[in-house]
Amino acid sequence: MKKIAIGIFLLLSLLSFSKEYNIGDKITLKIEGVIDKGEIEKALEDYKISSLEKDKDGSYIVTFTTYKVGENEIQIGDKKLKIDVVSTIEPSEKEIYEALSNPNNTYIETDYPHMGILATIAGIIAVITAFFMHLVDRAKDPYIIFKKGMSKVNESNWKEKISLELRRYIDNMYGTNFLGGEYNIVSPITEEDIDFIKNMDYLKFAPNRDGDYLEYKKRTFEIVERLRKEKKNSV
């Protein structure tokens, strides 16, 4: 069997601090060894491949997305990766949806005319569908994903987690690749914002350097709130 070295690119190494991935997260792998493009596409046929390019050193860099909740196994040559994917829908929201979709909660007056019954059923289905679509849209909302991720920040993981959530929010909002380390200025992102992110990178790779994690967390929320406000004003 061919020997293939799979290097975890910057994106994946950052996500690994959270030990799990949300639906829709972009995962980037750098694959080195004797392998062709078709084999990689075959290995990832169950996933949505965003890009697959050959690097200057002959390795392949592939970025893909998975929407399958649970443990995903990927076999590339003799290397096997396990990726744990979780839903971004909160348990409380899931319980509400399950309650609405339970037929035992549906009441139909038997004395109504048949057309009234059909209209009632159609109305219930429409409400459930609209509610489900709301949950799906909410689960994909970059700000909701950001707040959920920031709620898990603590004194032991803040150097990695704050940087991760801020860059993921920016990528989701502006189609950039901050998670991949490409810090390009895209309006309304400023040089000051990028300097802040770079400083977070320095903290992450300099374990002996301390900082006020609450101050960094506050600053991150200020950046995101400003970006949200400017995004709304530009619409």
TrEMBL record:
The keyword Membrane applies. The chain crosses the membrane at residues 115-136. Keywords: Membrane, Transmembrane, Transmembrane helix. This is Uncharacterized protein. It comes from Cetobacterium somerae ATCC BAA-474. The lineage of its organism: Bacteria, Fusobacteriati, Fusobacteriota, Fusobacteriia, Fusobacteriales.
